Amino acid sequence: MASASFIILSASFDYLFFATILYPTVVGALGGSWLLLHPTIGITAMHMQLLPSDRVIVFDRTDFGASNISLPDGKCREDQYDYILKNDCTAHSIEYDVASNSIRPLMVLTDVWCSSGALMPDGSLIQTGGFNDGDHVIRVFNNSCSSCEWEEIKSGLFRRRWYATNHILPDGRQIVIGGRRQYNYEFFPKAMASEKAYSLPFLVQTNDANIENNLYPFVFLNTDGHLFVFANNRAILFDYSRNQVLKTYPEIPGGDPRNYPSTGSAVLLPLRIVNATVATAEILICGGAPKGAFMNAVNGKFDGALNSCGRIKISDSDPKWAMETMPLGRVMGDMLLLPNGDVLIINGGSNGTAGWEYGRNPVFNPVIYRHYNPSSSRFEVQNPSTIPRMYHSTAILLRDGRILVGGSNPHTFYNFTNVLYPTELSLEAFSPSYLDQDSSGSRPKIILPMTQTRIQYKQLISVRFRVQNKVDPNTVSVTLVSPSFNTHSFSMNQRLLVLDVGNTTKVVGNLTYEVNMTAPPSGNIAPAGYYLLFVVHQDIPSEGIWVVIQ
Length: 550
Ligand SMILES: *[C@@H]1O[C@H](CO)[C@@H](O)[C@H](O)[C@H]1NC(C)=O
Ligand SMILES: *[C@@H]1O[C@H](CO)[C@@H](O)[C@H](O)[C@H]1NC(C)=O
Ligand SMILES: *[C@@H]1O[C@H](CO)[C@@H](O)[C@H](O)[C@H]1NC(C)=O
Ligand SMILES: *[C@@H]1O[C@H](CO)[C@@H](O)[C@H](O)[C@H]1NC(C)=O
Ligand SMILES: *[C@@H]1O[C@H](CO)[C@@H](O)[C@H](O)[C@H]1NC(C)=O
Ligand SMILES: *[C@@H]1O[C@H](CO)[C@@H](O)[C@H](O)[C@H]1NC(C)=O
Ligand SMILES: *[C@@H]1O[C@H](CO)[C@@H](O)[C@H](O)[C@H]1NC(C)=O
Ligand SMILES: *[C@@H]1O[C@H](CO)[C@@H](O)[C@H](O)[C@H]1NC(C)=O
Known about the structure:
Layout: H1 4-22, E1 33-38, E2 47-50, E3 55-59, E4 77-78, E5 87-88, E6 93-97, E7 102-106, E8 116-119, E9 125-128, E10 138-141, E11 151-153, E12 165-168, E13 174-177, E14 184-188, E15 198-199, H2 202-205, E16 218-221, E17 227-231, E18 234-239, E19 244-248, E20 265-268, E21 271-274, E22 277-278, E23 282-286, H3 293-298, E24 308-313, E25 321-325, E26 334-337, E27 343-346, E28 349-352, E29 359-362, E30 367-369, E31 379-381, E32 393-397, E33 403-407, E34 427-431, E35 445-448, E36 453-455, E37 460-466, E38 476-481, E39 485-487, E40 490-492, E41 496-499, E42 506-509, E43 512-518, E44 529-537, E45 540-541, E46 545-549
Parallel strand pairs: 21-41, 36-46
Antiparallel strand pairs: 1-34, 2-3, 2-39, 3-6, 4-5, 6-7, 8-9, 9-10, 10-11, 12-13, 13-14, 14-15, 16-17, 17-18, 18-19, 20-23, 21-22, 23-24, 24-25, 26-27, 27-30, 28-29, 30-31, 32-33, 33-34, 35-37, 37-43, 38-41, 38-44, 39-40, 42-43, 44-45, 44-46
The chain binds 2-acetamido-2-deoxy-beta-D-glucopyranose (8 copies).
């Protein structure tokens, strides 16, 4: 075991290495900035979800010792199944209030470790499964009250769900897919009380013996209402309502696995709505660890992470992967859609795999990917953090355009010393360069509609905004971003829609403009529920406002 001082030395060494060896000439040009919000939030941010109340629900696991924050009012959790503390008076979930930068400890009753979730159309968080006494439990967190607590539905799941993936569906239900040794899927809520799980042989076919490499599958709702499911090194288009594979996509070139524990990440690139249709749906998958990396890591050899991305038009009749090379290899990175449509790749390491103690060499620099640029100029390396964000780190988009970053390497017993990458309780924010002071003159500020507006499908939407500098009407767009559930380097339910504003930007007052557009046409393109609406001008997004599509 390395000593704490070694860890600090190795972290600063890595930073120097990246700054001086890989980017000797561009150091001054790196974008973005970091802010430490809290040295400790008391728990490790293993799972995060932004609620429409602008509060973030964070949780780790209940059965690995005392956290660093007490439950309120002297409460304790009695749990005969807990491996370490049968009586635990510490919290394993918190609510983080973005506006006040404050924390409220929450009680979770059963184990939520390595679970999944998504927001329902009413804004409540549905979290599914976990481990041990929690693996069949569904938990609800209501968005509508300031002192809400977790509520449990004891046998809400038909099958145990641990490392599963959820997605919201056009009918407002959630699908819960896979999980350890679960080659099937189920729904919440159930169509009828007796509804069971449906088998999914694709998860058997993509299961590498003993290692799996297909957990937390990358699931996206295609614009035809079917699901794109990527596991290990390949994907299908799946009609979940008929339990039918509609299309099998080619294997990703190179054949290396991209899912847990070879954890890469994936996004559905922005969906551009023109004339009430989306012509192209594209998936981008980046990083991960090469085949065999997990067993190598178990045996003390930490393979270099993959530096390749694969991009595929899933809506094409004959889809092919286009491969690209990232400036930095990365395993356990998170891919997030920024409000202006750029993709942020953040967190993770450059060696090893996911899993306790199996990652090495943190990657401190995020990278931005501009999907619409020519292939030679898509990646841009950003300024580094100083805090390793290895296994069990998370990142989510906030309404103000910042990225909330937390978590990393909790250890059994919550060890803070004598371990490599000690349990990390800090919370940081990464501000992309669009939040720089010198962008403020071009930044739109939405003045109408007011927050939490309801929008019907196909409805005409009128948005008014103010910009200090002269507006170039050809660079104004409006985007809708769904708040996603992030864990294990994957953001479930992540989606960004670019609305068709045509060239309608009109001056309606002093420095005040109006744009008109049509709301998304259907639940296949935008499942009902909460979205953040941003006005983007010259690639600089406004603060978002919450809208509800119904
Ligand atoms: C635990 O919390 C206390 C009080 O907030 C803080 O002083 C301490 O540094 C925390 N420990 C860790 C490891 O973050
Ligand atoms: C959430 O709380 C509000 C206010 O207490 C209540 O009206 C609503 O029914 C609750 N929603 C759910 C899903 O429990
Ligand atoms: C959208 O529809 C209008 C009217 O039907 C048509 O003139 C225009 O060419 C269409 N645009 C695109 C990009 O399909
Ligand atoms: C990380 O991977 C690179 C490339 O394979 C290798 O050269 C290096 O030794 C590895 N580092 C560690 C700490 O294993
Ligand atoms: C981690 O903490 C536990 C409980 O305090 C202790 O028994 C164990 O030795 C610690 N592990 C290390 C590597 O320090
Ligand atoms: C958009 O509108 C502006 C201002 O009316 C005009 O100058 C410009 O030519 C228009 N662009 C397109 C592509 O129609
Ligand atoms: C327009 O608004 C700005 C900022 O509020 C103000 O400084 C300026 O005087 C206004 N101009 C006119 C013509 O009203
Ligand atoms: C938006 O639509 C409304 C209602 O049709 C119209 O009055 C207004 O002028 C339009 N605004 C723009 C910017 O086109």
